[in-house]
Specification:
CATH superfamily: Dinitrogenase iron-molybdenum cofactor biosynthesis domain
CATH class: Alpha Beta
Order of helices and strands: EEEEHEHEEHH
Radius of gyration: 13 Å
Strand order of the largest sheet: 4-3-1-5-6
Number of helices: 4
């Protein structure tokens, strides 16, 4: 992973498919880059930015190693199966969403009552 910046303890790691660096606005298979953050109930920090230089699904999935959740606006069925089999939970948005807004929402959710799939990720991270 390139441009490693920081790591939060007791955090989940999320990736955002982006072409603008500001929004979740890219298809998984055609994203220019993935912005990866560590998110806890107290805060979130940029972990790194992964530029995508080839349209090879297997390489992209490998670059997301260690990520718990990946956000995008669309994904093909083969790529979806590959990331799920790699232990990454996919989240698809139908519209463009601000990365900062999603990070704030996710951080607040971790501090309250997160959905079962996020609780499971948190339990996996602690063990």
């Amino acid at each position: 992973m390139e441009n490693k910046i920081s790591t939060l303890s007791n955090a989940i790691r999320v990736a955002f498919a982006t072409n603008s660096a500001m929004n979740i606005d890219a298809h998984f298979g055609s994203a220019k880059e993935f912005h990866i953050y560590d998110v806890s109930k107290e805060n979130y920090m940029l972990h790194g930015i992964v530029p995508i230089t080839s349209k090879d699904t297997d390489k992209t999935v490998a670059l997301l190693s260690g990520v718990d959740i990946v956000y995008f606006v669309n994904i093909g069925p083969t790529a979806a199966a590959k990331i799920i089999n790699h232990g990454v939970f996919p989240i698809k948005y139908k519209e463009i969403v601000s990365i900062d807004e999603e990070l704030s929402k996710l951080s607040k959710m971790l501090g309250t009552n997160p959905p079962p799939f996020i609780k499971k990720i948190c339990e996996k991270r602690v063990s």
